[in-house]
Amino acid sequence: MICYGITNSITAISAGSLVKLTGRVPVVTCAAALHVAILVTLLCWKPSFQDRVVFFVMSGLWGVADGVWLVQINGASLPDSRLSTAMCGFLFPGREEAAYSNFRLWESLGFIVAYAYSSFLCTYVKLYILLALLAVGLVGYYYIEWGAAASPLHGECEGSLVTDMIAINEDQNLCLVSDVCDSHQRPPHPGREQTTDDRENLENAEEKRLVADDKYLTLLGFVERPRQFPGDVWRNTSLPIIITYVRDGQEQQGVGLARNTAHFLPNHTTLIYNLGVSQYGLQMVSGATVAEGVLFVSTRQLQANCNSSRCVIVNFDLELFPSHVEEDRLHAYRPLVIQDALNKAGVVLFLECDHRLVSGQLEPLVKQATEEGGVVSWATYHPTSSLTHPKMFDYFQTTAESFLFLPMVEASALLLVNVEGVHTKIMLPWVQCALTQDCILPIGAQSGGCRFNKKPQYRYSGCHRYDGSALNIVLGLYFGFDEKRYTCKGKERYFRRVAVETAAAEMAGLEGNATEATSISKDFSYIR
User: Fold this and answer.
1) Is the omega angle on the peptide bond into residue 240 within 30 degrees of 0, that is, cis?
2) How high is the pLDDT of residue 338?
3) How many other C-beta atoms can be found within 10 angstroms of the C-beta atom of residue 224?
4) For the domain that residue 397 is a member of, what is the CATH number?
5) Distance in angstroms (rounded) separating the CA atoms of residues 135 and 32
6) Closest Cα partner for 355 from 285, 297, 289, 272?
7) By three-state DSSP, how is residue 294 classified?
8) DSSP class of residue 492?
9) 258 and 333 inside one domain
């Protein structure tokens, strides 16, 4: 046991450093091969008193192999995500406690099973059992390393798939670690064929390269001679223009924001990006029809509230981009919408459609943006590191430690000026990340189950903000981790949020006005 313990301890300490040089798979494969070699030797070996050296050598080698299994399967995840070589820390960042507890639970059951049959079976039978379990464990391990990791690009996993990885330790111990296949491992978008681009995407993901196809970037204005402020701006409207987007089911909120901006900013243009509102939804809310890819707004509320040169509905076809861009929880389409409008107008104020202006005095915001770097945002009380999956930092060639004390800003409200720095250092990497599935959606990332009770507060909470996390990384890098350079300086309130129920009540009041003139007073009384 002393020989085993010494080699096991040395291997546990050195395995992490070795994995950084060679990768996890070669190290684990060598450990498994060593285990197989020892088990086969034990099957063929007839021990004698003269073989004491062989006995101690095999004990030491068993400790070496077991040290690799122990650290690489159940070892702790290091703070720097690039050094997180343990499987539990790799698969469950922010949820390590539950993963380790699960590991130990099945380890304990393995002890019970091993000791239960130990007195009833011969040694060679137990060796065959170990060989069989080791083979099954390796199949599960390689599936997680290659099969489950590659399935987001091939659409082999739908929803949440639970796979099992079985590992063997020196005590004939059966250990089971449940691996959750994240919901981003899903079938390809209907009607889309997987292409050779998928192989390139896989290579980029493995090397953590932040790249995107030029055809997508060109559509969004990333060209050799881009439009930039102040030379290329809209001249026939006050700046900034107001932009938002509407998804299926958000029609009422879109109408509400259109009316709100018309009230507070009558000389500013509002662009409402249609991101897949169904024909039925358009007809229900606005009486709109879709023909030949062009949206015609002709009747009812949307026409009544967005029917002038100051309010324009833009059909934005998400099918032109990678399929993951359409997924609602990622909001990967948000930076694309913002970049499209910013490239056209030069200065934009982006608001989610559930926001409402409470003031039309935007001059201080525009002045701050034009004088101090081109961005005005609104900070939260959460550190960026607490709401950003550790593996996203790799794509920006930085570490989570740099963002421990940098407040996260909301992605739901942004004022942007299309100066060179914003175009090349903020919007370009933000868009590139949004178009790169493994950047915006690292394996294991989720938006729910936040644990803000972790101490210290800057630890990863288990929640990821997808496009919002990417935005905060690029802002921090560009502005030298000084949030004062890109957050709103004053205490004046510019926006408020409106619940879905309130927007529905407003819509009901508008429809009542159109059909029952005598009920106007009653409707507005109900809304208030």
Assistant:
1) yes
2) 98
3) 5
4) 3.90.550
5) 9
6) 272
7) strand
8) -
9) yes
Which residues are registered as beta bridge partners of 274? 246, 315
Q: What is the pLDDT of residues 119-173, one digit of tens each?
A: 888 877 888 888 888 888 888 877 877 765 444 433 333 333 333 333 333 333 3
Cα 170 to chain centroid distance, Å, stands at 38
Query: Residue 460 is encoded by which pair of tokens?
Result: 């990863």
187 phi, psi to nearest 5 deg: -65, 155
Residues 516 and 470 grouped into a single domain: no
Distance CA 31, CA 359 (A): 66
Residue 71 resides in a domain: yes
* Alpha-carbon span 515 to 523, nearest angstrom: 12
Q: Are residues 291 and 385 in the same domain?
A: yes
Could you tell me the two tokens for 196?
A: 């050779």
Q: Is residue 158 domain-shared with residue 116, that is, in the same domain?
A: yes
Structural domain count of the chain: 3
326 and 436 part of one domain = yes
324 and 444 belong to one structural domain: yes
Q: Look at residue 246 and tell me if it is in a domain.
A: yes
Dig out the tokens for 320 from the structure: 């032109």
Close Cβ partners of 495 (under 8 Å, ≥ 6 residues apart): 351, 355, 356, 357, 358, 413
User: Under a CB-based contact definition with an 8 Å cutoff, are residues 168 and 133 in contact?
Assistant: yes
- Beta-carbon neighbour count of residue 1 at 10 Å? 8
Instruction: Tell me the pLDDT tens digit for each residue of 300-349.
Output: 455 556 767 789 888 899 999 999 999 999 999 999 999 999 999 999 99
Q: What tokens does 424 get? A: 């090349």
- Token pair in block for residue 434: 């949004």
Tell me whether residue 125 is in a domain.
yes
* Enclosing domain of residue 56: 2-181
- DSSP letter string, 347-407: EEEEE-TTEEES----HHHHHHHHHTTSEEB-EEEEEGGGGS-TTHHHHTT--GGGGTT-E
- The first and second tokens of residue 478, run together, are 């560009």
Task: Tell me if 411 is assigned to some domain.
Answer: yes
Strand partners, 409: 379
Residue spans of the chain under pLDDT 50: 76-85, 149-196, 198-199, 202, 281-300, 516-528
